[in-house]
Amino acid sequence: MNAKDFYSLLKSVPKAELHIHEEAAIGRGTIKKLYKKYKGTIMPDAELNNLFDYDDLPGFLNSFIAIQNMFKKAEDLRYTFQDLALYLKRNNITYCEAFFSPTSHLKKGFSFKELSTLITNGVEAIQKQTGCTVRIIVDVSRSFGVENAQRNLDYVLEEKNPYIIGIGLGGDEEKGPAKDFESVFLKAEQAGLHRVTHAGETCMSFSIKDSIEILHAERIGHSLTAAYDEECMKLMKEKHIPAELCPTSNTFIKKYITKIEEHPAKKLYDAGVHIMINTDDPTFFKVSLIDEYWRIYKGLNFTLDEIKQVIKNGFTAAFISDEQKTVYCRQVDSAWEEWFKAHPNCSI
Q1: 3-state secondary structure of 38
Q2: How many Å apart are CA 19 and CA 287, to the nearest integer?
Q3: Cα–Cα 20 to 30 A to 207, which of 13, 64, 215, 237?
Q4: Among candidates 261, 262, 264, 257, which has minimal Cα distance to 243?
């Protein structure tokens, strides 16, 4: 199938995204707005373009931090939810679990109660505007140590925001081993929160195994290095632990792979690991969810039937009821069938 038809098909089909950082869908218009608000002048195009001119992980992180520093007041964060709504609509994403990282904002003096209110208002506005169901996973962050992670969890437990359904362990995987956060994740599990980790992104498969066996993580973000360990793939398959793959992000980091053709998504899929496709940081990696599906279709030789299954995997890996999963998957099948009926010259 050519790119034009593929994008048309994928735009018509409802999708889930389960590994996306809420602030990483920020639009360039929002960046300009914040610049004007606090500097009083229009942001030069060259300066804006320089923010996104990087080709390695340090460059990306510098850009990410620079943009985070542009949020001077808690109320500014409402713009990121508005941009997320636009992104979800463009990609026909009907269910989303997005990471929200509070630590840097708390260090600025924002209160978690303020942030929680913004989350509630932002999620409800998205759902009203797009019809997409959005839930939030708070990134307790390994980058600032166990005590900070515990404090973030305590805020979540105290606030009891119905749109916050779990915690995630993001940040520097090499400097914050998953096993160090056992007490935090145990407390979250006892409280009934869902648990996910970023693992196997920049560390070998021990990080994934520790996440599953010690932290009792229910999904693994990235999971790249599981593909290099048969026992790890077997563990994920037998325990039904989904892998939140982010092809462009994984390629960009250049830790284990340097181009899409080297990505192990197909190997994991063929091994029976429950994979789904995500973008991680769409604005920063200049990618959309539909782009990611095109890249694994074209670069990894997924068949169209396999693409449809991976789309459905996104819904079945979500933290929703079995009944909801069934409804979403039927919507995928229906939209898929309708598109091919309307395009009889295209075949699977």
Answers
A1: helix
A2: 13
A3: 64
A4: 264
pLDDT in tens, 51-94: 888 887 778 888 888 888 889 988 899 999 999 999 999 999 99
Torsion angles phi and psi, residue 217, rounded to 5 = -65, 140
d(CA 164, CA 175): 26
pLDDT score recorded for residue 348? 64
Helix (H) or strand (E) holding 46, with range, is helix 45-51
How far is the C-alpha of 147 from the C-alpha of 66, rounded, in Å?
A: 25
What residues form DSSP beta bridges with 164? Answer: 136
d(CA 302, CA 285): 22
Two tokens at 40? 């009083």
Residues in contact with 158: Cβ distance below 8 Å, sequence separation at least 6, in sequence order: 112
Please state whether beta strands 93-100 and 243-245 pair in parallel, antiparallel, or not at all (unpaired).
unpaired
Q: What is the rounded CA–CA span in Å between residue 20 and residue 281? A: 6
Residue at token pair 């900070």: 148
Task: Kindly give the interhelix angle for 3-12 and 289-300, rounded to the nearest 10 degrees.
Answer: 130
Cα–Cα distance for residue pair 171/190, rounded to 1 Å: 23
